[in-house]
Prior knowledge:
Oligomer: single chain
Mean pLDDT: 88
Radius of gyration: 20 Å
Bound molecules: protoporphyrin IX containing FE
Number of strands: 0
Number of helices: 7
Strand content: under 5%
Distance between the termini: 65 Å
Largest sheet: none
CATH class: Mainly Alpha
Amino acid sequence: MVRLFAHFQASVGKKMIMALTGLGLAGFVMAHMLGNLQLFEGPHALNSYAAFLRDMPIVLWAVRIGLLSIAVFHIGLALQLGMRNRRARPVEYTVHRYRQASIASRTMAISGMALLVFVGFHLLHLTAGVIDPGFNDRLDAEGHRDVYSKVVHAFQNPFVVLLYLAGQLGLGLHLNHAIASSIQTMGFEHAGLNRLLKALGPVIGLIVVLGNVAIILAVFLGIVR
Ligand code: HEM
C-alpha cells in the first residue's frame, strides 16, 4: 500500500514538473513570436533587438542553458510517463475505440515529436546557420548582424516555408491541449473559471501560430522584403 502510494506520488510529481516545464516553454514561444514580429517594423528594429539579446552573453547563455534544461526535463518525463502508460496496458485493445484522453495524449506525442524535429531544423537553420550559411556573417548598415535579411532570404524558399508551416501545425496542436491540461495538473480548478481555463490553450495556441504564420507568409508573398 505504502509502495503504491509512493509510486502514485512520484507519478504526480513528474506530471507537475512536466506541466511547469511545458508552461515555461510556452512562455518562451510566446515571447519569441512577439520579438520576431519586429520584422514588420523593418531591418533596424529586428537587428537591434537581436543585437540587444546577443550583447548580454551571460544572460543569453543563462537563458539558453535554462531553456535546454527545461526542454530536456519536459521531453524526458514525457517519454517516461508515456512508456509507463504503455506498460500499464501491455495488451492492445482488440477494438480500437480510444477514450478522449487517449486521443489527446496520442496527438500530444505526435505533435511533440513534430515540434522537436522542427526546433532541431530551426536551430541548425537560423541560430547555428549550418543550413544555408550564406547570411551568417552579413552585417547591416549599423554593423549589427543582419538577422532581418537572413529571415527574409529563408522564407523566400518554398521548401523552407512548407517546413515552417508544418512546424506551426505541430506547435498549434501541442499548445491547444497542453496549456489547459498543465493548468489542471497543477490543481488550478474553479467551477466558474473552468470554461475560460479550457479556452486558454486554443486561444494562446492560435495567437502564437497566427503571429508566426504572418511572418512566414508576409515574406513569402513579398509583403515584407
Ligand atoms: C516564424 C517563426 C519563427 C521565426 C521567424 C524565428 C526566428 C528565429 C531567429 C531569427 C533566431 C536566431 C536569433 C539570432 O540569431 O539572434 C531564432 C532562434 C531560436 N528560435 Fe525561433 N523563430 C520562429 C519560430 C520558433 C518556434 C516556433 C520555436 C520553438 C518552438 C523557436 C525556437 C527558437 C530557439 C530555441 C532559438 C534559439 C535562441 C537562442 O539563440 O538561444 N522559434 N528564431
